[in-house]
Amino acid sequence: MITLGLILCAGVALDAVLGEPQRGHPLVAFGRLANALERRGNRAPAQSAARLYGLLCWCLAVLPLTFLAWLASQVPYLGWLWEILLLYAALGLHSLDEHVRPVAQALRQNDLPQARLRVGRLVSRDTRELDAAGVARAATESTLENGADAVFASLFWFAVAGAPGVVLHRLANTLDAMWGYRTPRFERFGWAAARLDDALNYIPARLTALTYVLLGRRPRLALHCWRRQAPLWDSPNAGPVMAAGAGALGVSLGGPAIYHGERHERPLLGDGLAPTARDIGRALRLVHKGVGLWLLIALAGSILHA
């Protein structure tokens, strides 16, 4: 048990120092596999059959690799090393920094076209017509939500189930990002990917929201926004995370956005002014402070257990 805190710290440290692999990232190869499965499996005409095909493709993509992660963690004397490497591959804290900070920098330099281009790499909404406040809002929302999906959920599932747990979550989350759209192509086929990702992120999302409440400058407002505004959001996990994060930062998020050519009227989250480039940096710092808190808890728990 004492190794849990140390492994978590080692994985976070590797991510901080090395960042994402520039070549041969395992998730890139997994994305090619997922695309191949989707091209072959997303052909069923009936709604029930399409959902079944989507579930079967999800199982084919995720379960064998999860089993391989378990085997790697069982290797005598080297299992701990494989666990660190798999946790490092799953974490996205350094990548989040690399993608979000240039958005804030472009806004500070009043380079709105570059800011729109940069934030378009973070979100699935149409960013071509966003003003500066819209760009800052999109970047802040992405920071808070990806902090939950790509950082805290990975730490949670590793703590719960080790290497297979973190691999299962990361692959499921990747498939949700690829298949979990409410479009004619994916609404039925991607149903299982979306629902399974919701299930796997249910507890981590609420722990992330609690982290934002505890570490934000306005904890009472953050808790109030979480309780009152999160149920209005269409995503059961993004709602608590972004509502609590918006309240913790004292900014307003949500509002109208264009996805796949359609305007969506999203509920308002938080309370305060529209975010700015400064608030993007504050959101990043909130995520980093949360990671530090989680690592301290893991280390303390390991020491007390020992």
Element layout with pairings:
Blueprint: H1 2-18, H2 26-41, H3 47-73, H4 79-90, H5 93-108, H6 112-120, H7 132-179, H8 191-215, H9 219-229, H10 238-249, E1 252-259, E2 262-270, H11 277-305
Antiparallel strand pairs: 1-2
Helix pairs in contact: 1-4, 1-11, 2-3, 2-7, 3-7, 4-7, 5-6, 5-7, 5-11, 6-7, 7-8, 7-10, 7-11, 8-9, 8-10, 8-11, 9-10
Transmembrane segments: 52-71, 150-172, 286-304
Subcellular location: Cell membrane
Function: Converts cobyric acid to cobinamide by the addition of aminopropanol on the F carboxylic group.
Polypeptide structure, described:
It is found in: Cell membrane. Pathway: Cofactor biosynthesis; adenosylcobalamin biosynthesis. Keywords: Cell membrane, Cobalamin biosynthesis, Ligase, Membrane, Transmembrane, Transmembrane helix. This is Cobalamin biosynthesis protein CobD. The chain crosses the membrane at residues 52-71, 150-172, 286-304. By secondary structure, the protein is mainly alpha-helical. The protein has one domain (2-305). Helices cover 73% and strands 6% of the residues. The protein has helices at residues 2-18, 26-41, 47-73, 79-90, 93-108, 112-120, 132-179, 191-215, 219-229, 238-249, 277-305, and strands spanning 252-259, 262-270. A two-stranded antiparallel ribbon has the order 1-2. A hairpin with a 2-residue loop joins strand 1 (252-259) and strand 2. Helix 2 crosses helix 7, helix 7 packs across helix 8 (191-215) and helix 8 (191-215) runs antiparallel to helix 9 (219-229). The chain is globular, with a radius of gyration of 19 Å. The termini are close together. The mean pLDDT is 93.
